[in-house]
Design a protein that fits this description.
Elements (H helix, E strand, L loop, with lengths): L8 H14 L10 H14 L3 E6 L7 E7 L8 E7 L18 E2 L5 E3 L8 H15 L8 E6 L10 H5 L2 H6 L1 E6 L8 E2 L2 E4 L1 E10 L3 E2 L8 H24 L10 E9 L2 E2 L2 E2 L3 E2 L2 E10 L5 H12 L6 E7 L20 H12 L3 E2 L3 E3 L5 H5 L5 E3 L16 E3 H20 L3
Parallel strand pairs: 3-6, 3-7, 7-20, 8-18, 9-19
Antiparallel strand pairs: 1-2, 2-6, 4-5, 5-21, 10-16, 10-17, 11-15, 12-16, 13-14
Bound molecules: methionine (MET) and zinc ion (2 copies).
Keywords: Hydrolase, Metal-binding, Signal, Zinc
Cofactor: Zn(2+)
Organism: Oryza sativa subsp. japonica (Rice)
């Protein structure tokens, strides 16, 4: 690989801006949205973009930044490029380099930081692509908007969900949106036409308490273990279809335990000689957008958490399940969606190859757009890159990041010139 000196002055500056943005601590539980806005707004202004800051909370602590490059024909539906401002937390002691230092490893070119892939590469790539197009004298036909939104990682209730329902959003007349995707292990770019639904399932068990030494039936933890075992069997069958290659990771239901709670705390840990009367387990629960949700709910009620085993459950559906017309929230990737072929052509013109479109195994703000019947694709231009979102040592290689800028130049050029 070329030494750092092999980058042009512009490329070095672009990598520098990526690092600067990564150093802003936008991780939950207290994301520095003000810091992100103070970085992004002057940056956008320096490129001649119009900027507005919207608030959907009374305390105005969760800004939504809207940047605009006006098109020569503002009567055409606009193009929206989205990115969330927030990140998930990191456990610094588990990382090779501090997660908010954005350290660039000179030997590999990897920039290590929380958010390097998810998704703080995107706004820098969008803005640098605009710089390239602007410097080449390009003028968009359609208006191009960039939205930089808060709270995606916690469900988007005060972010994209409210934005999508706002008058400000309606006034943008969005025809098509691009949002985050996931890295690709090969040299094919991945593209996502739907997200899995994101639910949370909490199961509580009650049971007879008793001495830790006593063998008896119907203890709370035993009842909960029954539930966990049933769900584990279901999970294994779903996972099996992914392992055998029969289904993609977005085409199965995942139900993964994320916490368990039982027992009585003591100064040295837990009281060990008492069997508790209550126990609880929480699951991250994702479903393909086409899933028969009524069937799954019945299954939870009758098989996973039946009342006769002293189990109760709480199911929280984060965001819509179907679009406004009652259909699964998926964007067509065929001739019925003219944006699709323009996007596909743009990737080819950028010298890229596109993998077969997939359902994203995680969940993004795209669902709030698809709910309105507006087409949206998930796309993050990261090829030959391990998938490290929400993981330790999240990184993006400098060259991969820079190539992404070029890819967006092609995409923006094609989509904003599309007259159809
Ligand atoms: C809770 S909404 C989704 C948040 C995040 N993007 C995820 O997939 O986990
Ligand atoms: Zn994300
Ligand atoms: Zn994420």
């Amino acid at each position: 690989r070329p030494a750092a000196g092999a980058f042009t002055e512009l490329e070095s500056a672009q990598i520098g801006r990526f690092q600067d943005y990564l150093r802003i601590r936008t991780a939950h539980p207290s994301p520095d949205y003000a810091g992100a806005a103070a970085f992004l707004l002057p940056y956008a202004a320096s490129l001649g973009l119009r900027a507005a800051t919207l608030h959907f909370t009374p305390c105005k602590s969760k800004p939504l930044l809207l940047l605009t490059w006006p098109g020569t024909d503002p009567s055409l539906p606009s193009l929206l490029l989205n990115s969330h401002l927030d990140s998930v937390p990191a456990e610094p002691e588990q990382w090779l380099h501090p997660p908010f230092a954005a350290h660039r490893d000179a030997a590999t070119g990897r920039v290590y930081a929380r958010g390097a892939q998810d998704d703080k590469c995107l706004p820098i790539q969008y803005l640098e692509a605009i710089r390239g197009l602007r410097d080449a004298g390009f003028a968009p036909t359609r208006t191009l908007h960039i939205s930089l939104v808060p709270d995606e990682e916690i469900g988007g209730a005060d972010g994209f969900e409210k934005f999508a329902q706002s008058e400000e959003f309606r006034d943008l007349n969005v025809g098509f949106m691009l949002d985050e995707g996931q890295a690709s292990l090969t040299d094919e770019f991945r593209v996502f036409y739907g997200d899995r639904l994101v639910w949370r399932l909490i199961v509580k068990a009650t049971g007879a308490p008793g001495h830790g030494s006593k063998l008896f039936d119907g203890a709370a933890v035993e009842n909960l273990m029954d539930c966990v075992e049933t769900i584990a069997g279901f999970r294994e069958a779903q996972f099996g279809m992914v392992k055998s290659g029969k289904r993609g990771p977005g085409e199965v239901v995942s139900v993964n335990p994320v916490y368990m709670k039982a027992g009585t705390p003591s100064p040295t840990g837990f009281v060990m000689n008492m069997q508790p009367s209550e126990a609880e387990v929480g699951f991250d629960f994702r479903l393909p957008p086409t899933e028969d949700v009524e069937h799954i709910i019945r299954r939870i009620k009758e098989e996973w958490a039946p009342a006769h085993k002293n189990l109760t459950y709480k199911l929280m559906q984060k965001g819509p399940t179907r679009d406004l017309a009652g259909r699964p929230m998926v964007t067509p990737t065929n001739a019925s969606n003219p944006w699709w072929s323009v996007f596909e052509q743009a990737i080819i013109s950028a010298g890229g190859k596109l993998a077969k479109p997939e359902i994203l195994s995680s969940t993004t703000d795209s669902r709030f757009i698809r709910q309105l019947g507006i087409p949206a694709l998930g796309f993050s231009p990261m090829t030959n890159t391990p998938i490290l979102l929400h993981d330790n040592n999240e990184f993006l290689e400098d060259k991969v990041f820079l190539r992404g800028i070029k890819v967006y130049e092609h995409i923006i050029r094609a989509l904003s010139s599309f007259k159809g």
